Amino acid sequence: MAGTIREFRIGELSKRTGVNIETIRYYEKIGVMPNPPRTPAGYRGYREIHLNRLRFIRRCRQLGFSMNEIHALLTLVDANRYSCSEVQALTLRHAEMVSNKIRDLKQLENGLRGIASQCTGEQVPDCPIIDTLLEPGK
Amino acid sequence: MAGTIREFRIGELSKRTGVNIETIRYYEKIGVMPNPPRTPAGYRGYREIHLNRLRFIRRCRQLGFSMNEIHALLTLVDANRYSCSEVQALTLRHAEMVSNKIRDLKQLENGLRGIASQCTGEQVPDCPIIDTLLEPGK
DNA sequence: ATAAAGCCTGTAGCTACTACAGGGTCAAGT
DNA sequence: ACTTGACCCTGTAGTAGCTACAGGCTTTAT
């Protein structure tokens, strides 16, 4: 019983991870997922190890890591010579980028609400938003 | 003197707006910038009107509007039958999207800092971040 | 006269996928 | 045995919003 390793197809991998089939094949092409063994008919045969790896990737994506960053993480993991501090550094660097983006978006939102608040909201063809956007000056 | 309309080339338009040359031609191709008149040699000839329009577009982009949204705004402006309330609605709709994005990114940042805080930061090859990412469960 | 700077078109590349087209394979039902 | 439908395969093209050439013409300055 122990030792019985069940293989499954890409469709099952897709359903169990929530990553869609084309995306899995794409991950294989760009090298973040390994080339799995094939059946005689050419079907990909996956195992638990692939499931874990794909979940790892999916979680990283949900955390907003780029494929490059994920690649870096996986390289560390694959080499089995990653150190906690390296991974932490990568993570915090990414968190910095995220908080910068938040800051930018907040400014942007303020800008938008600011110009929108100047509108009367009436049905007149003369709008402070448009006027603002058309103003000269770089 | 008044009435002397100076034409200028794409390079000058680019410098005065901060939008680069290829992007200007791209905007022309997708129809947000008009086809300008050409010199006999085929050079594009721009005037103040183009400058204003391009600045409008650039500002919209800085405010995070998609090209589709900009297209919609410009169509309203071009038809000269826009109403302030339409423009305001479009702007507020966009502001909503921005604040949603901010909310998502904040969650994301919390997630990242949360897992990073579990690290010792030491040079050991065993990392709670990696462990977390490798955990089973969809 | 020539060299440099500027312009032209058109195509390919970037991210991270998604959506086909056109085909092969497999298991179940008749 | 045969057919149907679900599944899988490869490869290409599309998405957004640009950017970066390649290869060639024009204009300007020396």
Describe this entry's structure for a reader.
The structure is a homodimer of 138-residue chains. Chain A is mainly alpha-helical. Chain A has two domains: 1-82, Multidrug-efflux Transporter Regulator, Chain: A, Domain 2; 83-138. Helices cover 62% and strands 0% of the residues of chain A. Chain A has helices at 10-17, 21-29, 48-62, 67-79, 84-117, 128-134. The first copy, chain A, is elongated, with a radius of gyration of 24 Å. The N and C termini of chain A lie far apart (72 Å). Chains A and B meet through helix 3, helix 5 and helix 6 of A and helix 3, helix 5 and helix 6 of B. Chain A binds a DNA duplex (30 and 30 nucleotides) through residues 9-11, 20-23, 25-26, 30, 39, 41-44, 61, 66-68.
What are the main properties of this structure?
homodimer, 138 residues, mainly alpha, Multidrug-efflux Transporter Regulator, Chain: A, Domain 2, 6 helices, 62% helix, elongated, DNA-binding
Could you give a short description of this structure?
Two copies of one chain form a homodimer. The first copy, chain A, has six helices and no strands. Chain A is mostly helical.
